[in-house]
Design a protein that fits this description.
394 residues; mainly alpha; globular
C-alpha cells in the first residue's frame, strides 16, 4: 500500500477502532478473574491467570510473525479477535480450576497474534518520520479500551453477573472482527503465499530477529512490572477498601492516554532512547511507591506514574523496533518484541504469585524486584546512548 503524508486515513481509523474493541474485550475480565478462580478453590493459582495467558501469547509470536509476513496482516489480526470471541463465550461454562487454567492458556493466542499483525500493518501505511506519532495515536485507542474495559467489567459484574461480563467481552471481540473484514491487505503481493501447514514449520530464524535485540532487552526488563501489577493489584485494591478492582487500571490507562495525546511525537523529535530513559525512571518510582502504598492516594499516585511510563514506553519501543527491522521481516521483528513483552509479564506474574501467597507482608518484594529491573533498563539505555554519541562523533 502506498504511504501518504497523512496518517489519518480510513484504514488507520478502522484499525484504531478494532484495537479499542479488542483491548477492551480481554482487559475487562482481568480484575474479576482472581475472585472467579478463588470461588472454584484455586486461590493459590492466581499467578497463573496472567502467566498462562502470556505463555501462549509468547509461544504464538513466532508463528504470528511468520504468517503475518506470508499470508497477510489482516487474516492474523482477525484470528486474534476470533480467539477472544470464542473464549469469552466459554468462560461462563467453566466450573473447574484445571479447565479454567486451560482456557486461559488458549485465550493467550489472541494477544499472541493480533498485536503482531497490527504493528506490521501500521508500519506498512505510515511514513517513516511519523511512526512514533502513529503508534501513539493507535495506542490512545488501545489504552482507552484497556481503561474502560476493567471498569465496564466491574460494573457489569456488580449490577448483573460475572457471566454477563464474559458475554459482553465476547461481543466486543465480535465487533472487532466485523471491522477487520472491511480492511485492505497491505502485505506486498510478491511476498504473499497461499496458506499451508508448511508455514507452521518454525526455525530459530523465525523465532528471533537479531536486529531488534535492544528493544527486546528493554521490553523484557520493563514488562516484568506489568505481570506483577496484573497479579497483585486486584487484591491490593480490596485491602485498601476499594470495591471496584478495576479503578487502578482505569487511572493508569487514562494517565497513559494523556502522555500519548500530548507527547505522541516526542520520540520522533528527540529520539527513541532519551524518551525510554525517562519512562524507565518513572516506572522504577511507581513500583517503589506501590510496594509501600497503604492508602488510596499513594495507590493512585503510583497508578498515574505507571501510566505515564507506559504511555512513553509502548509507542516508542514499537517505533524503535520498526526502525531497526528489515522491511521484509517486519512481522518477525514485531513478534520478537512481543515475545519479550509476554515473557516479562509472564515471569512477573509467576514471581509475584509465588512471593505473595496471599500475605500482605509479602507485597513489597515483587515491586522492589520490578523497580530494580527498571533501573537495569535505565543503565542499559544510558550505555546505548553514550555509544550512539561516540559513533556519531566518529
Amino acid at each position: 500500500m502506498t504511504k501518504t503524508n497523512s496518517i489519518y486515513t480510513l484504514q488507520f481509523w478502522l484499525l484504531c477502532l478494532s484495537n479499542f474493541l479488542f483491548s477492551a474485550s480481554f482487559q475487562m475480565m482481568i480484575p474479576e478473574l482472581p475472585d472467579y478462580l478463588a470461588s472454584m478453590g484455586g486461590k493459590e493459582y492466581i499467578g497463573y491467570i496472567i502467566a498462562l495467558f502470556t505463555l501462549t501469547a509468547g509461544i504464538s509470536r513466532p508463528f504470528s510473525g511468520k504468517l503475518t509476513d506470508t499470508i497477510g496482516r489482516v487474516p492474523i489480526m482477525a484470528f486474534g479477535s476470533v480467539v477472544c470471541f470464542i473464549c469469552g463465550g466459554i468462560y461462563p461454562w467453566v466450573s473447574g480450576v484445571a479447565t479454567f487454567l486451560f482456557l486461559r492458556f488458549i485465550h493467550g493466542m489472541s494477544t499472541g497474534t493480533k498485536p503482531t499483525a497490527t504493528s506490521a500493518y501500521v508500519a506498512d501505511i505510515i511514513p517513516e518520520d511519523r511512526r512514533g506519532e502513529a503508534q501513539g495515536m493507535l495506542g490512545i485507542f488501545t489504552a482507552t479500551g484497556m481503561s474502560m474495559g476493567p471498569t465496564i467489567g466491574g460494573y457489569l459484574t456488580e449490577l448483573f453477573s460475572i457471566n454477563t461480563m464474559f458475554y459482553t467481552s465476547s461481543s466486543f471481540a465480535l465487533l472487532s472482527i466485523l471491522i477487520l473484514v472491511n480492511m485492505k491487505e497491505t502485505l506486498p503481493k510478491e511476498q504473499k503465499q497461499p496458506f499451508s501447514l508448511k508455514l507452521f514449520k518454525i526455525g530459530w530464524v523465525d523465532v528471533f530477529e537479531p536486529r531488534v535485540i535492544p528493544t527486546f532487552l528493554v521490553m523484557l526488563l520493563v514488562s516484568f512490572s506489568s505481570g506483577v501489577i496484573l497479579t497483585l493489584i486486584p487484591d491490593q485494591t480490596k485491602m485498601l477498601g476499594m470495591s471496584n478492582k478495576g479503578i487502578f487500571f482505569t487511572v493508569y490507562t487514562i494517565a497513559s492516554l494523556v502522555v500519548r495525546m500530548f507527547f505522541a511525537k516526542s520520540s520522533d523529535k528527540y529520539g527513541r532512547i532519551p524518551v525510554l530513559i525517562i519512562s524507565s525512571v518513572l516506572l522504577a518510582v511507581a513500583m517503589l511507591i506501590l510496594g509501600y502504598a497503604n492508602n488510596f492516594t499513594a495507590l493512585m499516585l503510583a497508578s498515574i506514574l505507571f501510566g505515564f511510563s507506559w504511555g512513553f514506553n509502548t509507542p516508542t519501543l514499537t517505533a524503535w523496533t520498526v526502525d531497526l527491522s528489515d522491511e521484509r521481516y517486519r512481522g518477525r521483528a514485531m513478534a520478537t518484541m512481543y515475545i519479550a513483552l509476554e515473557a516479562g509479564i509472564g515471569i512477573g506474574a509467576v514471581v509475584a504469585g509465588k512471593l505473595y501467597q496471599g500475605k500482605v507482608e509479602n507485597l513489597p518484594y515483587s515491586y522492589i524486584i520490578a523497580a530494580v529491573l527498571s533501573l537495569v533498563s535505565l543503565v542499559y539505555l544510558v550505555i546505548l546512548r553514550k555509544n550512539q554519541k561516540k559513533h556519531l562523533a566518529a
